[in-house]
Design goal:
The protein is built from 2 helices and 3 strands. The protein has 63 residues and is of the alpha+beta class. It starts with a helix and ends with a strand.
Length: 63
């Protein structure tokens, strides 16, 4: 299973949706990837994703 399929199955969101949200709205936070030994210099962008009027999730995206 690729990462996009994993996101669809586990987070009910896909990379395309995240890309659009990053273009349209401000990020909630940008943090260092906690696995810096494996992913040196990589950042994680945290976005708020509103899936419907009753449910809200935050979804990290790698920068």
């Amino acid at each position: 299973m690729d990462k996009n399929e994993w996101l669809k199955s586990n987070r009910d969101v896909c990379f395309e949706q995240i890309a659009v949200l990053m273009e349209q709205a401000a990020l909630l936070d940008v943090i260092d990837n906690p696995s810096q030994d494996k992913y040196t210099g990589q950042k994680i962008a945290v976005k708020k994703v509103i899936l419907d009027q009753e449910e809200m999730k935050t979804v990290p995206g790698i920068l």
